[in-house]
């Protein structure tokens, strides 16, 4: 598999098989992803992969907690074209599992599955020192993309989740993080449940003319 194929095949999977993953495979993926570029070679990531009882304990702690204020994943009053993209993505997702807009309880139940890593056997938390700046958070994104593409290469599926930032304080305690560290995002990792209707959804991409341009060619 080449990089182009991995990019085309990668997508956010929201239903996983319970099949356990070997520790050696998970560690290999995390280590290989660390070849990702980072400004000044800071490598500003701290990565924790959980399975089994440790994963269940963290999920239980979050289930018993309340979301923290000021932890939304998107800017307030989102503007165009981003507002329409987000709206369309949400509608496509809920349509794939037959939850209409007026079924708020059903939508909340689906949202809650984030806190279960969508049934994935491995939950990964990518953390960083909260004193790091925007350039280092960009480095975390490079690490994330590297990890997800490596997972595709090994026949695995992922779902990156900003959701976990809603429970920053709870996770800081549950994961016993260093004082200055914070959770940047989570990643569900496992084998895709190909029979789950929600995994039939495919998010579209804006055409190049909408976001890109070439100059001087």
The rough form would be described as: globular
CATH class annotation? Alpha Beta
Order of helices and strands: HHEHHHEHEHEH
Average pLDDT score: 96
Quantity of strands, as a count: 4
List the strand order in the largest sheet: 1-2-4-3
Q: Helix/strand/pairing class, anyone?
A: alpha+beta
The proportion of residues in beta strands is 5-15%
Number of domains: 1
CATH topology: NADH Oxidase
Number of helices: 8
In the predicted model, the low-confidence regions spanning at least 5 consecutive residues are: none
What is the architecture at the second tier of CATH? 3-Layer(aba) Sandwich
Query: CATH homologous superfamily name?
Result: NADH Oxidase
Major beta-sheet overview: 4 strands, antiparallel
Task: Annotate the secondary structure layout.
Blueprint: H1 3-9, H2 23-33, E1 46-50, H3 52-63, H4 82-96, H5 104-112, E2 122-129, H6 134-153, E3 157-161, H7 168-174, E4 181-190, H8 208-211
Antiparallel strand pairs: 1-2, 2-4, 3-4
């Amino acid at each position: 598999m080449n990089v182009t194929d991995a990019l085309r095949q990668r997508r956010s999977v929201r239903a996983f098989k319970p099949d356990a993953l070997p520790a050696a495979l998970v560690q290999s993926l995390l280590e290989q992803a660390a070849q990702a570029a980072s400004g000044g070679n800071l490598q500003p990531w701290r990565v924790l992969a959980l399975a089994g009882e440790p994963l269940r304990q963290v999920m239980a702690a979050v289930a018993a907690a309340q979301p923290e204020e000021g932890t939304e994943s998107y800017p307030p009053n989102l503007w165009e074209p981003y507002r329409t993209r987000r709206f369309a993505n949400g509608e496509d997702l809920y349509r794939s599992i037959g939850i209409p807009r007026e079924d708020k309880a059903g939508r909340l139940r689906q949202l809650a599955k984030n806190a279960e890593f969508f049934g994935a056997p491995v939950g990964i938390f990518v953390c960083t020192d909260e004193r790091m700046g925007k350039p280092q958070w960009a480095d975390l994104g490079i690490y994330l993309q590297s990890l997800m593409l490596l997972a595709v290469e090994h026949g695995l599926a992922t779902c990156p989740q900003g959701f976990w930032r809603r429970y920053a304080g709870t996770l800081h305690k549950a994961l016993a993080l260093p004082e200055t560290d914070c959770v940047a995002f989570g990643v569900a990792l496992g084998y895709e449940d190909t029979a789950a209707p929600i995994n039939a959804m495919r998010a579209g991409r804006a055409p190049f003319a909408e976001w890109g341009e070439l100059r001087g060619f």
